Amino acid sequence: MRRxxxxxVLGQLLQKLAPKIGATIVLxxxxxxxxxxxxxxxxxxxxxxxxxxxxxxxxxxxxxxxxAKDKDYAAFFMKKMGYPxxxxxxxxxxxxxxxxxxxxxxxxxxxxxRRLRFPVVxxxxxxxxxxxxxxxQRKPEFYRAMRFIFRSDRIALVQxxxxxxxxxxxxxxxxxxxxxxxxxxxxxxxxxxxxxxLLRKKQKGFTASSRDTxxxxxxxxxxxxxxxxxLALRSVPERGARIYLLDNANLSSGGDxxxxxxxxxxEFKKIAVKLTRDMGLRLCGVDLMVAGxxxxxxxKYWVLEVNAAPGLDHYxxxxxxxxxxxxxxxLKVLKSLAK
Length: 339
Prior knowledge:
This is ATP-grasp domain-containing protein. The chain is an alpha+beta fold. Among the domains are: about 85-160, 2-Layer Sandwich (Dna Ligase, domain 1), CATH 3.30.1490; about 185-245, no CATH class. Helix content is about 30%, strand content about 25%. It has helices at about 10-15, 60-70, 70-80, 95-100, 105-115, 140-150, 195-210, 220-230, 265-280, 320-339; strands spanning about 25, 35-40, 45-55, 55, 90, 120-125, 135, 155-160, 165-170, 175-185, 185-190, 240-245, 255-260, 285-290, 300-305. The strands form 4 sheets. A 5-stranded antiparallel beta sheet has the order 13-10-9-14-15. A 4-stranded antiparallel beta sheet has the order 1-2-3-4, with helices on one face. Strand 9 and strand 10 (about 175-185) form a beta hairpin. Helix 1 (about 10-15) crosses helix 10. The longest helix is centred in the last third of the chain and has 19 residues, at about 320-339. The protein starts with 8 loop residues before the first helix and ends with a helix.
């Protein structure tokens, strides 16, 4: 059976926008995730060629992009430059710890979590889209979360919990293109329906809006989060009660986005632009946790991470204004690549 094509917005958008600058997009037909951009040349000949795969384009330097992918390395350099980052440390799977002759195994991770004091956040060091992020409060939860992460990543990051509002700021070439608040996957009770039913209704809403988010009812993170609230999928929340189902606010995990591109405080814009430049990037998604509101002057905030290939597939489906923002972003990207 032929695998279903992945639904990614980048290739489609570039095909739509490329004619505006005389460029052509060639998409690899089997999977539709890799493409070639052919820019106009002289005397009828094709010009410069550029490539993309998933959400990664030929825009950011390879070294800077690789650092951004590694949460621990990125945090090290950001802290060195004076940016407020979340306190944390990496620990290794049993086989990897043995291979590199390190004592920073799962048990060392637990001792570190105790020093930080529970609750702590546990997540893959190289993960993206919020996969494998856990908020843990006790020893059994810690070991369960770490072992889950080690199934797909040999390095886990244990961090102190910071609280506030979660924002992503997208920067391109010294300019803030968009900013939005991210709210974790949640449902609002109607006094009659179970959480499972409410989740299925939410999934139908995603499908109707062409947003390709898939809520997995058997996601270990959902059962973990509900367990901390002494709830289960069969529980029936009271009318108006908001029940959070994940700890991460990524849109790919079913989170909601609230645009703050216009009201964002200018100082936060300056921070995002400077950080992007300091990390050697041209295109960057800067993720911040703000103790307050991003509309106000910065007082207390943390840089959660930087993303050198900020996927906007879910953001673009949140409304026509967001669609326009993303189209303008990628048109500017095409013009930058053409130079």
